[in-house]
Amino acid sequence: MAAAEGLDGLLGELDLSCSCCLQHFTDPVRLSGCGHNFCRACITQYGRGKQRVSCPLCREGFDLKDLQPNRELAVLVSLVPLWVKEEELKTQDEPKPSGAVACNDWSSAGRRAGEKEEEIWDISKQLEMATETIQLLREDLIKAKEHASQIKSQVAKDFYCMKEYVERQERNTLMFIEQEQKAAEEKTEETIHQLCVDMNNLLDIKAETNNLPDRHRYKGSPSRVNKITLDEKLHVVKSAVEDLKRKLEILLLEKYTWKLPPVQSPDSNQEKSACSSSPEPEAQNPKPVVSSQFSQWADDVTFDLSRVHERLAVTAQNRKVMVSSNPIDYKPSPNRFCISQVTCSQSFSTGCHYWEVITKDSDGWAVGVAHNMIGRRDKLGRTEHSWCIEWLGAKKQLSAWHRDQETLLHKDKPVKVGVLLELQKMTLSFYSITDKEVLLHAFEINTSDPLYPAFWLYNLEKNGSLTISSTNRR
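The structure corresponding to this sequence follows.
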């Protein structure tokens, strides 16, 4: 009942009457030019015998043969309550004005009827467009689901192949180690047996020589036994496994690029006020304690994905950067380096700060700090506000750079570099980290701007990587 009353109210708001006969439309048609609606019989009678037919409402010309049925309007008229139609039937016998007279009656009611008809026509067009749009969106949704399903199937297939390959290599490697171990054990047992035989022979000789003059005593010695070890072969196997692991990691990054969010400690964005700040209690830090004298000032730094060259892949929770054979699909950034460099997301302007970088997996690298305004094409250590030490594979030498000036250090290649930034003393120091810290070089810096850890991998034709070591506070 409520729905019927609502429909009656809606139809009451709409004027569904022909402006010629002033009754509800019968077989409504739309004029091809202006779009006004009339009963087919009314508009045909109105234009009969005229050389030029113009719309009774707006005077725009039209041709009777171009009349278009308005089905939407006919549907609306069909919804008019029956009692309204019965009232119209009662008034059919009463004299009503001719079509020509009615059409020439330019009353305000006629103009309102034309406006209502235009509104109905616009709504009908919008409904058609909405229906078409919904259909297109549904088709796009089906295509997107099919495409996603194909991609997931291909990814699953690729990972299955890689998993099968890795498992096969694992079985072969373990089998090789087991065979070498057995061979070494057999060789060792054979050697022990031979030594036992030699010992028995020596005992016999000793017993015999006790009764001989000194000049006839046995002058020989036990045969020299070669030391049997698996260290060399196992080192080759271990290196091969590490190389395979690195290649698989690069392959995954090149074919399936995903971004892992950096893991930051709660105090990673808080700078320590001075070098003399007390270290954290051991009970609050469950990680292994690093024996470095600088570990109390260690900072959790990670690579910045918006300031890394497109041929450098960032992995391991943004702590490792490696050379990739293909560009990585990073998000567009105006600060992305055009040189194979990368900076960290963290910056420092006060206090003491320390971090360590593993460099053993690269033959050409630079480690240092730089001002945030370093250009996309600026090289680390070649500007006024950047400092670094570098190892160049071809020259096999370690050097320090600042303002495009090189200082040869005459040191061996460090496998791990420690960086100590003391901003209250305005010094930057680099250390080779082994069993102890060995000073490589120290700079006096002269800037008050925030400084960012910065890195450079030279050769994009060779696989190389740098890894930020997790240095724990004492």
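Residues 108-209 form the longest helix (102 residues).
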